[in-house]
Amino acid sequence: MRHRLLPLSLCIFAQLNLTLKQFCNALTIDHRILKTGVASHELPLRNWSMSEETLGVTTCSHCQKRYRILKKQAKFVGKEISCPKCHRTFVVAIETPSPLENAAVQQAADQQQASPSAESNPATSTEVTKTRRKKRKKAEIRQEYYDQIRENLPVYMSRLKAMQEQESSSEEQVRVWCIDVLRAALGHDDADIDTEMSALGQRIDIAIKHDGKVLIVIECKNIRNKLPNSTRDQAVAYATSKSADWAVVTNGVIWKLFRIIPIKGHDPKVVQVFDVALFDEDGLSDFDVQCLYLLTQRALLSGEADKEFHLQESLSDRRMLGAINEEKSVRLLAKLLSLSYRKAFGVTVKLDAEDVKERLGQLFRPADL
Q1: What is the C-alpha to C-alpha distance for residues 324 and 319, in angstroms, rounded to an integer?
Q2: pLDDT in tens, 175-203
């Protein structure tokens, strides 16, 4: 029965043209390498061979997020590191990747190599070039913001580090520090930073406005505060009262961004967009910079922040699995599996939707004892 796992999983993601990142989201294995002292980056798909450069995978003992460990990261095996997702420490222990994880990576690499190059078709090549020029224009602007964050934020991180080393610190120190960062690193104008606004009988630490509309409410806490859910709820309540779509909670070191979706007659839906820590093993990483960029006025007003939120939400584990289990998807999978098997072995196996549904359940759900 186990051998039927691989053709099914490969057909699901190959035929539905899903990326490796989306596939890994469904499997709860992180598509990024473990964030450690080695710079974090995404490798081209053709290099994503588990056997060539990967020692194995490791699992955070707290949040159960899985990460792959590269051979060049062997020095971290057996040592405590901070989980990029939950920020709690765990000991790196090498685990063997599952057959499904190995198969997914290999399938993605095979697809990349098999894809026809645009250079072989002059018309396609011209269209691609035009599209790239348009994208490059936006990308160049975004890159300027990235560079500004990389250049200016480290100065303020040094200040934050000194604050962290003090015997005592205050919430007000963090608030003043955040205002400076919003100006110097994230490019907000003084006129758009409101520190005198009130909501629900309390002062809002920081509100970012544009043309009188509140875009984000930022709740600042003492640098030693762990930012519990009550802090999130406080920021969301303030933001909701001001009809703001976004709320941030931060102690300076950790930044969490939330999207607020109003629901008539009910409490709003709150979705976390990112959770970054400035003093983890990789310091100010590319991933951190890209997340913090979403707090700039350009990202908020151009719709880039909203686009990133909708992208993440549309590819959530729940939605991915829901789409795979849709009746149309199941019927398509049954057909593709039969065709794939006949092509490989010359034998026609008749599969119905119930066969595929049962196998999907075995594939993605834990078995009962």
Answers
A1: 9
A2: 999 999 999 999 999 999 999 999 999 99
**Is residue 320 included in any domain, yes or no?**
no
Helix count (H) and strand count (E) of the chain? 13, 13
Q: Tell whether 174 is covered by a domain.
A: yes
The whole-angstrom separation of Cα 297 and Cα 293 is: 9
pTM assigned to the model: 0.68
- 19 and 60 belong to one structural domain: yes
Position 281 scores a pLDDT of 82
Other residues' Cβ atoms within 10 Å of the Cβ of residue 87: 19
> Model confidence over 9-67: pLDDT tens digits?
444 444 444 444 444 444 444 444 444 433 333 323 233 344 457 788 888 888 888 88
The count of other CB atoms within 10 Å of the CB of residue 202 is 11
DSSP type of residue 77 = T
Specify the DSSP class assigned to residue 117: P
Domain that includes residue 342, residue range:
333-369
pLDDT band at 88 (very low <50, low <70, confident <90, very high): confident
273 close to 259: Cβ distance less than 8 angstroms? yes
Helix 122-165 to helix 171-184 angle, to the nearest 10 degrees? Answer: 150
- Quote the number of domains for the chain: 3
Question: Do the domain assignments include residue 129?
Answer: no
Using alpha carbons, select from 184, 178, 181 the residue that is nearest to residue 220. Answer: 178
Q: Coil, strand or helix: which one is 39?
A: coil
Q: Is the four-CA dihedral 134, 21, 278, 280 of positive or negative sign?
A: negative
d(CA 233, CA 210): 24
